[in-house]
Amino acid sequence: MPKLIVELRDGEERELNGETGLSVMEVIRDGGIDEILALCGGNCSCATCHVQIDPAFFPLLKPMSEDENDLLESTSYRTEFSRLSCQVQFGPALDGMRVKIAEED
To answer: Which of 6, 55, 85, 103 lies in disulfide reach of 49, CB 3.0 to 4.6 Å?
Structure first.
């Protein structure tokens, strides 16, 4: 099973097993991490699952939609490697990917 490494806001790292086909948000939520609120349930209508992706893995992701880009514009902590974790599908190609949970707005 592919691994996802999650850096929490306090700097602690957790390694999670991720089921192929789940979003990164679902892997984080199912792994017992509660720093991702995901208020919209993964429908790309909020920015409460904002993460920063390891730059080495960023080119492997599908391009973000206009809706995702608009939502990320509303956060103060956006970086060039920001994504909404509900919009990133996890699987073997992303095995070992690191994500950092963004600060809350």
So the answer is: 85
The per-type count for the chain, helices as H runs and strands as E runs, is 2, 5
Is this prediction's pTM over 0.90?
Answer: yes
Whether 8 contacts 52, CB under 8 Å: no
How many Cβ atoms from other residues are within 10 Å of residue 78's Cβ? Answer: 18
Which stretch of DSSP H or E encloses residue 13?
A: strand 13-17
Tokens 């809706």 map to which residue? Answer: 67
pLDDT tens digits, one per residue of 69-82 = 999 999 999 999 99
Q: Are 16 and 24 in contact (CB under 8 A)?
A: no
The number of distinct structural domains making up the chain is 1
Report the alpha-carbon distance of residue 65 to residue 47 in Å, rounded. Answer: 13
Q: What CATH number did the domain enclosing 49 receive?
A: 3.10.20.30
